[in-house]
Amino acid sequence: MTPRPTRFLLIEDDDDHAELIHMALAENHVVNRLDRLSDGAAAVDYLLNGVKKGREPRPDIILLDLKLPKVDGHEVLVQIKQDPSLKTIPVVVLTTSQAEADRLKAYANHANSYLSKPMDFDKFHQMIKDLDLYWSVWNQPPPGL
User: Most C-beta atoms within 10 A of its C-beta, which of 19, 63, 129, 134?
Assistant: First the structure.
């Protein structure tokens, strides 16, 4: 059985970071889908009024920046994990923050993973490629998702 493409939802306000993520995902030659939202308010609306109500496709994984305009990433994470219909979507926090307080808060709010974006382009690029392989190939989600 051929696995279906993985649908990533990237919630990232930095255009350069978003482009790097898109490029790295494309290099793995796996036909995945990457949708992007650039602020926290749009993300909450998309998930609660779009995905939850069946108007938008359900992402298989969410890549979430913490430093977002309008609604910060911590609050977006809370909204996702408090909703019974969304809480099983894995959320990978992908941020420049290396602050222990941010990491602890993200895990306390049920983030599935916390990755600090390396400042080195090659390391960042490799991290995204590895993340793609893990979630698209190696990870085994619960049945029905």
Answer: 63
